[in-house]
Amino acid sequence: MSMQFDDRKCLVERPASASSADLIEWHGIDWARVTRNVRNLQIRIAKATKERNWRKVKALQRFLTRSFSGKALAVRRVTENRGHKTPGVDNVVWSTPVSKARGITQLTRRGYQPLPLRRVYIPKSNGKLRPLGIPTMKDRAMQALYLLALEPVSETLADPNSYGFRPTAARRTRSNSAERHCRSGRVQCGFWRRTSKAVSTTSATRGYSITFLWIERCSGSG
User: pLDDT of 161-201, one tens digit each?
Assistant: First the structure.
């Protein structure tokens, strides 16, 4: 019998002698619906944040982190990224549909205790080693789940001219912002052409750091 889930933390159909993990068919999940449910909740959280209705924000965040859609999307993200084959200290990876379905049912706050990070060292270009801490799959999924609920608040309240680690801030947006600043009359003529050339020859983060450093110097605000 095919089982279906809703976002009220309950099963639409549930035989008495089966666990929740046994009822979930990973490849049978409607991912378009899951993504749509999470997106709608995030929009409502962002709207409540703009209205400074913190009681509603907290309620919606609580609903999202307990919903099937939120948990399923969190598990999908950590099992399909670049490090999905790297285990933590428990040496467990969610590589099969059964283990992924079981992972959805494990994302509960009650009794949750994160495990220590597994320390590994990766080589750097200069020959040295960089330490890296790797969480377990469950801890990564819990982080991804709560990020779904926290991100609408942080993105709504963030400075519109801040682009560090912003998922919705594209490179073109950063470039346009710098260009508007350069053309506001406080920067010397021809400065934007030199800045654009410098940005195009460096990495995104380093390039835009150079850009705004030059803007600060040329505008006399530094």
Answer: 766 666 665 555 555 655 565 555 544 445 445 545 454 44
Same domain, 119 and 214: no
Structure tokens at 166: 């912003």
83-134 pLDDT, tens digit per residue, is: 899 999 999 999 999 999 999 999 999 999 999 999 999 899 999 999 999 9
User: Does residue 7 belong to any structural domain of this protein?
Assistant: no
Where in the sequence is the domain holding 51, given as residue range(s)?
A: 20-157
* Contacts within 8 Å (CB) and 24+ apart, 179-186: 181/215, 182/215, 186/218, 186/219, 186/220, 186/221
Distance CA 174, CA 157 (A): 18
The reply to whether 165 falls in a domain is no
CB 63 within 8 A of CB 101: no
Query: CB under 8 Å to 91, separation ≥6 — which residues?
Result: none
Q: Which residues, 6+ apart, have CB-to-CB distance to 93 below 8 Å?
A: 84, 85, 86, 87, 99, 137
> Are residue 143 and residue 179 in the same domain, yes or no?
no
